[in-house]
Amino acid sequence: MPAEWRPSSEATPVEWAMTAVGGLQPYAIIRRLVVGDGKTREEWFRVVTAAPRSEDRVLIGYWRTLDDAASAARDFSIALADWQRHIAGTGRQDTTPEPAPAELLRFYRAQKRA
Asked: Taking the model in full, what pTM does it have?
């Protein structure tokens, strides 16, 4: 029996909220972007920090696949939590500026490889 057509079958997902298991608040937002000049078309995925207002989100980076973007978002959330625990342990919460998300992710991934 052929599948019945539904309006949602024409929907294309363009945004995903990354939320920890059991968590209520997202830690990152992934947005699908399609760029091209009509002849060529490329799909990219932009990852930003989660914030209620779009203008308060900060770029983490761009990836070519949804899986790579989701992996980066998850690594960022772990890196941020590790950094926050480290700063809390030093007693410098008020004096140490939070690193840029892309830099925090880059440092975390470099440490994972080492």
From this structure: 0.83
